[in-house]
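B., you asked whether I could sanity-check this one before it goes into the benchmark set. Here's the sequence:
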Amino acid sequence: MITEYAVSKYQLQTQLAGWLIQAPAPLTAAQINAARQFALTFGATAETESGSLGPGEIANGATALGIVIALGVLAMSVGLIRSETSQDLRTLTATGASSTTRRMITAATAAALGLLGAILGMAGAVIAGLAWARSSLSVMFGDVPLTDVLILLLGLPLITAVAGWLLAGREPKVIARQPLD
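And here's what the prediction gave me:
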């Protein structure tokens, strides 16, 4: 599309290529069908936009997917750390450490890993945005959804701490002997 001034300055010819029609409410299937039939009688087509996601919905979906992936990685990391430190947990249990202590250790580890993951993920997103935006930083970072950032930076460590607290604290099955590898 160009302006009328450019058309007159460069002596261009205009022609009608289509119309953009906006309705105050979503069109019904019958209305869409009638518009398509009308367009076909004149050798044209009618296209509708339905079911497309807006930028906010895409951002919220990406945030939710990112949290789910991060929680999966964190669950595997905490499980690996817990299996590697099972001897230390046995020692803590043998010396009288309560399940609350064991739960706190696991929750603190999970929260620290969650916070580290959120910070690294956010830093990676900012670096990718800087590399992509180059000179238009205000356009790239002018409309950052702060709620999504807060959910990632505060919610992810909180969720992992709660999950670590709830899933930890069981007393090891056997304290007296070394586990077989």
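One thing to flag: The CA atoms of residues 54 and 60 lie 10 Å apart. Otherwise nothing jumped out at me.
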